[in-house]
Specification:
The complex is a heterotrimer of chains A (288), B (160) and C (791).
Chain A: E1 7-9, H1 14-23, E2 28-31, H2 35-42, E3 51-54, E4 63-66, E5 69-73, H3 78-82, H4 93-100, H5 105-110, H6 113-118, H7 125-132, E6 136-141, E7 144-149, E8 154-156, E9 159-160, E10 167-173, E11 180-187, E12 197-205, E13 211-219, E14 226-227, H8 229-235, H9 242-251, H10 265-287
Helix pairs in contact in A: 4-7, 8-9, 9-10
Chain B: E1 4-10, E2 13-19, H1 25-32, E3 51-54, E4 57-60, E5 73-75, H2 77-80, H3 88-95, H4 105-118, H5 124-130, H6 144-159
Parallel strand pairs in B: 1-5
Antiparallel strand pairs in B: 1-2, 3-4, 3-5
Helix pairs in contact in B: 3-6
Chain C: H1 3-12, H2 26-31, E1 46-52, E2 58-64, H3 66-69, E3 74-79, E4 92-93, E5 102-103, E6 109-115, H4 118-127, E7 129-134, H5 141-144, E8 160-161, E9 176-184, H6 187-193, E10 196-204, E11 216-221, E12 227-231, H7 236-247, E13 254-257, H8 274-284, E14 288-291, H9 294-300, E15 307-315, E16 321-331, H10 340-346, E17 359-367, H11 382-400, H12 404-411, H13 429-446, E18 455-468, E19 472-480, E20 486-490, H14 499-511, E21 518-523, H15 540-567, E22 574-577, E23 580-583, E24 590-592, E25 615-622, E26 648-661, E27 667-677, H16 684-703, E28 709-710, E29 713-714, E30 732-738, H17 759-771, E31 777-778, H18 782-790
Parallel strand pairs in C: 1-14, 10-31, 12-13, 16-17, 20-21, 27-30
Antiparallel strand pairs in C: 1-6, 2-5, 2-7, 3-6, 4-8, 9-17, 10-15, 11-12, 11-14, 15-16, 18-26, 19-20, 19-25, 22-23, 23-24, 26-27, 28-29
Helix pairs in contact in C: 11-12, 11-17, 14-15, 16-17
Classes of the chains: A alpha+beta (288), B alpha+beta (160), C alpha+beta (791).
The complex binds flavin-adenine dinucleotide (FAD) and FE2/S2 (inorganic) cluster.
Chain lengths: 288, 160, 791
Amino acid sequence: MHYELKDYIKPKTLEEALKLLHDYKGAAKIIAGGTVIHELSERNLLEGVEYFVDIENLGLNYVRIEKDGLHIGATTTFNQIVNNSLFTKPSYYALYLAAKGVSSYQVRNVATIGGSVCSSISFLDVPNALVALNAKAKLVSLNGERIENVENLFLGMLNPNISEDEILTEIILPLEETKTASYYMKLTERAFDYAIVSVGIKVKLNENGYVENIRTVFGNVQPTPYIENKVYEIAKGKYINEDLIKKIMEEIPSVEPIDSINASAWYKKKVLKVLFRDALKETLEMIS
Amino acid sequence: MSKKQIKLIVNGKEEIIEVNPYESLLKVLREYLGLTGAKRGCDYGGCGVCTVVVNGKAVYSCMYPAIKAEGKEITTVEGLYKNGKLHPVQKAFIDANTVQCGYSIPGAIMSAYALLLNNPNPSDEDIKEAFSGNLCRCSAGYYWPEAIKLAIKYMKQRES
Amino acid sequence: MNKQALIEEIEKQYYIIGKPVERIDAKPKVTGEAIYGYDLVFPKMLYGKIKHSSIPHGIIKRIDTSKAESLPGVRAVITGKDIPDHRYGLVLFDRYLIAKDRVRFIGEAVAAVAADTPEIAEKAVNLIEVEYEELPAVFDPEEAIKQDAPILHPDLRKYGTSKVSAPWIPFDMPNLNNYRRVVFGNVEESFKKSDVIVENIYETSMVQHAHLEPQSCVCIYNYDDTFTVYTSTQTPFRLRFELSLALNVPENRIRVVSPYVGGGFGNKLTIYAEPIACILSKKTRRPVKIVLTREEVFTFTTVRPPTRIYVKDGASRDGKILARQVRFYINGGAYSGGSGIAVYTYLAAQALATYKPESVKFEAFSIYTNLPPQGPLRGVGPAILDFAFERQMDILAKKLGLDPIEIRLRNISKQGEENIYGEIVDEDYSKVLLTAYDALMKKIKESNEEPTHPWKRGIGYALSSKYSLAPTASSATVKLREDGVIEVFIGSTEIGMGNYTAMQQIVAEEFQIPMERVSIAAAADTEFSPFDEAQMSSRTTVSLGNALVLACRKLKRKIAEYAANKLNEDPDHLEVKEGFVVSKRNPDKKIRLEDLFARGKIRTGTFLEGEGELIASANWFIQAGIDKETGRIYDKYGNKVFERVVNFYTPTGVASEVWVNVETGHIKVKRLVTVVDAGKVINPKLVEGQIIGGSAMGISIALFEGLQWQNGYALNPNFADYKLIQHADLPEIIAIATETPLPHGPFGARGVGEAGLLVSDAIPNAVSNAIGKEVKKIPLMPEYILKLLAE
Ligand SMILES: Cc1cc2nc3c(=O)[nH]c(=O)nc-3n(C[C@H](O)[C@H](O)[C@H](O)COP(=O)(O)OP(=O)(O)OC[C@H]3O[C@@H](n4cnc5c(N)ncnc54)[C@H](O)[C@@H]3O)c2cc1C
Ligand code: FES
C-alpha cells in the first residue's frame, strides 16, 4: 500500500463528513471497508486524492424495518447481512446469498454494502442482488438528498453516478411481500470465486400462482448490472411451468455478453440460460 | 505527508506509533512492531497469509488501514502463544499435520481462531467459508478442517 | 504370521525410522517465530526495487535515470552499464543480470534502485525513463522455429556453457537452445507392424509455482570485498555458483545463507534479485533488501513452460505398444532460466521410462520465445508428457476395447528387466496402479452416491514414474557435542517438505537416540554447511540421507576408537548406541557419550583430550548420463556408456473419480487415490503431506491454472485471475505409500516430494471418460468442456 495521502480523517458525524467532502471536493475520497479502495490504490487509480474520509463512525451501521421499507445502513458489512436472520426471508434471500457467496471470508468481515454499490463494478455480487430486489439508495450531500434506484447508480465500469461530495447513507429494500421470493446464483470456477456470470431473481406470484412480477438481473454480462426485461415480458401473467422456462431460455440473454479472460461471450450465453433456470426453480420452490 | 500518532491494542498491549495516513496494518505490525507472524504474500487480498483478527473478526491486514484499527483489539498469531504454551488452535494445527513450508499457517490459524471465537461448533460448510480467503500452495489446506475439529476437542479439554 | 504381525516385526528393526514423529519446524511455524527471508531486517538496510522492461522484445536506446537519482532518499540507481560483462545461467550462460542492450520479455530487469524506504524506491523506479526500439516478437514455439522468425539470441553459439549437461544444438533451427533425442528400436518398422495407430496433439498451459513467500533477499557487501546473501532459495550452492558468474566474483567470496523458505516448487532454484541487490549494496555500502511483488513473481521469475506434444503410437491388437513417436515443443521463454532449458529437454523424457514399447523415437525442442523463462515445477516435465502419454493409453484402450488398467499393465517396464533407456528396473509399476484401483473401487462401492443430470461420472487413471535427477551429490557432517547431542550440518534448505525432520530421524536412528538428542545446527549456509546440490527433484531423502548415514557410521567408528582407551576394549567390539559406547562382549563396559569429554580439568568448559573434535563428514555421489545420439545408456554400437540415466524413479499410480456438469462444463473431483512408492517410509506424516500436496497441486493444474499472455503482456498475473485451488475445492484424497525398497536408498527409501503431481494426468482421463470426448489440453476450463460437448 504505497499510496500517499495528506490525511486520513475519521469524522464522527455525517455532517462533519459531508463538510469535509465538500471542502476538499475532488481531493477527498470516501473510504468504507477499504477493500476496493485498496485495489484502486494498487492500480494507481487514485490520482488527485489527498484525503480519505473514513465513514465507519457515522452511525450508518444498522438494519431496521420502517414504514417505507427495510433500511440498511451503508457501512453494514456483508457478514452482518449474512448473520442477520431477516435476510434469510424469501423476499431478501438473494441479498443473503450474494453476501454469503463473496469469495473471501476476510472481505465479508469488512466490505460494506455501500462500498459495493459505489464501486460500480458489474461482476460484484451484492449490487446485482440489490438490483434484482428493486433496491433504492439514499444519497446525501450538503446540497440535499436524493433517492435513486440502485441500477441508476451504475454508469460503467468504475464509473458510479455519484458525486464526489455525496455519501450513500443507506439502501432501502421494499417491505417483505407475500408470495414473493428471491434468489441469487453465480457461476464460478472455484468454490469461492468472482462470478463468471450471475443471476439475481425476484418473483412475485398472485393469489392464483400466476406471475405478478418477475425481475431478473445478469451480472458480468454488461459493464453494468443488466436487467433482463425479456423474462418479465414472456412470463407476465403466466403460470411458470417447464415449457415456459424453456421458452424463456431460448430468448435470453437479450444482449451479447462481454468477453472475460476466463469466459467468452459464447460460453456466457450458454450457461446464463442454465443458471437462470436453476435460480428460477429455487425461487419458486421458496414460494410454495 | 504528515505522520499521525495512533494507539493500537495489539495482543492485549497498548502500542503508540506514528504512521503515514494510508499505511496498512500489516506494514505496521511487521515493520514497526516487529511482529512478523503475519506474512505478506500478495498485498491485495488474494492469499490470506496476512490474516489477523480485529475486534474478533478475521481481516486481511494488507488492506486494512492502520488508522482504521485505532482503538480496536488486534490479535496476531504471536498473541496466541502465551507463557510458553501453545493455543489449542496452534496445537491442533501441528497435530493435524497442516505444517509444511509454513507460510500460510499463521494466516490460516488466525482464520481458524476467529471462526471458533464466533462459532464454537461450526458445520463443515462454516469451515469451508472460514477458509475461503486463505490459500496454501503446499497442501491447499487439506488438513485445516481436521485441525478445527481437534482444536474444538482441545478447547473442551482445557475447560474441563 | 499374519500380515499385521509381519509388518510389526519389520517395524521393530527400526528405532525411529517409519514413525510419525512431529516435525521439528512445526512449533516455530505455528507460533509465527519461524524467520523467512521475507522477514529479515538489518541495520542501515536499504530497499531495492527493479525496473522491468515494458516491451516483449527490443533494443534499449536510452535510459534516463536523472530524475530517479535526484529523488530524496534514493541512494543508488543502476542500469546494464553498471554490471559486469558476464552472462550467467546454469548450463547455458545467456543472460545478463540487468539487460545491457536488449530486452527479450516484459519482466526483464532494465534498471534498479536502492532507497531508504520501499515507497521511495518504487517512486524512483517509476521516474526512470527508458526508450526502446521495438523488435518483432514471437510467442509460440513452432512460430519461433520458422525460418523467418525473429531471432532472440543471435550470438547463441558464442555463449558459454557448463561442462556438465551443456545444451545440445545439433542442427540449425531458429531459436532452438536445447535438444534431446531418444532412439530405441526402429519406429518405422514397428509402425508397419501395428494394427492401430493413434496420433494426437496435446497442449499444456503456462503454470506458475505461486509459492506464497515471494522471492526475498538481503545482500550485504562486506568490508573485505565479499558478499553475504540471505535469500529465500532451494539451493544455496547453486545460487552461489550462478551469482559468481553474474557478478564475475569467485565463489569463495560469496556466502549464501537461507533461512526458512516459504515454498519453492522449483522456482527458487536460480538467481533473480540477488545479484542486483549485491551490486546495489556494493555501490551504497549498505545492506540492500529486495522482495518481489506477487506480480513480479508471476512475470519476472520462471514458469512451467507451455508445451505442445505430438504423439503417434502404434499398437498391436492385444494392446502392446509397438511404436511411440513423440515431438515435444517447449515454449522456453527468453532465457535458459537457470536450469530450465536443461531440464525440460533432458529430464522430461524420463516419463518414457514407465512403459516399454518395442520402439521409441522421442525428440524434445527447447525454443526461445519472448515470454518468461522456463523453470522446473515439482519436477521438470514428466507430468507434462504424462498428460499426453496417459491420454494416449486411454484412447488406445478404447480403440482396442481394452480396460484402461489392463492396457497399462501390458506395457509397463518390468522389474529386473531393462527399461527403454537400458537401466535395470527396480520399480514395481503394477503395484502402485493396482493399489490405486482397488482403493478407489472400494471407496465407490462404500458410497451409494450417484450423479444425476446434469452431472456425469467418469473414472480415470494415470501411471508413471517420477525420476530423480543425476549426477548428483550431497555431503553431510555430524559432530558429537559435549552434552552428548549429535549436531548435524547439512546444506539443504527447509522449504516445506520436512527434510530437516527426516534427516534428524535418520541420525537418531543411526545413534538410537531420541530426536531431542540430535540437533540440526547450521542449516544452509555455504560458509559452514557441507555441499548439497539443491532441495529439488525429490532427491534429498536419498542423496543427503545416504550421505548422513555414511557420516554417522564414520563418526560412530571414531567415537568407538576414542572410547577404546578409556574402556580398555577393542574398538571393533564397541558399539555406539542409546547415548553410550558399549562393549558388545561385556555390556558392563560402557561410557556415556558426554563422559568422553574431559571435565573439571580446567576452570571452564570441557574438551576431548588429545582429539579436539569427534566429527565426521561423508559424501554421497551418483554418476549418470546418456549417449547423446541414442539418448540411452548405450551408444548406437551397443556399448554401455553409463549405468544409469537418473538416480532412481518413484512409481506413482492415481485413480480418480470426477463428476462433470454437462450443462456448464464444471468438473468436481469427487474421489482421488494417489499411490506413491516410497521405498521405505521414513516418516508417514511427512510422506502423506507430500502426497496430499502434490495431489492438490495436480488438481489445481488440471482444472484451473494457466498464466495467459497477449502479445507478451500478462493478462492475469494475480491471485484473483490466476486461479489456485482453494481448500473448498479439494475432494477426499486417499494417500497411500507402498514400499518397494530402493536398493541404494537409505533404509530402502525413495524420494516422494514431486510424484503426486501425476494427479494432473489422471483427471483429464476421468473427464474424457465422463463426457465421451477426448480432452487434449489442460487446464480443463469449463468453456473448453462445453466446446468439446458441442462438437
Ligand atoms: C479479495 C476480494 C474478493 C472479493 N470478492 C467479492 C465477491 O466474490 N463478490 C463481490 O460481490 N464482491 C467481492 N469483492 C468486492 C467487494 O464487494 C467490495 O470489496 C466491497 O463491497 C466494497 O466495499 P468497501 O466498503 O470495502 O468499499 P471501499 O473500498 O471502502 O469503497 C469502494 C468505493 O466506493 C466508495 N464508497 C464507499 N462507500 C461509500 C458511500 N457510503 N458513499 C459513497 N461512496 C462510497 C469509495 O469512495 C470507493 O470509491 C471482493 C473484494 C476483494 C478485495
Ligand atoms: S498479503 Fe494480504 S491477502 Fe495476500
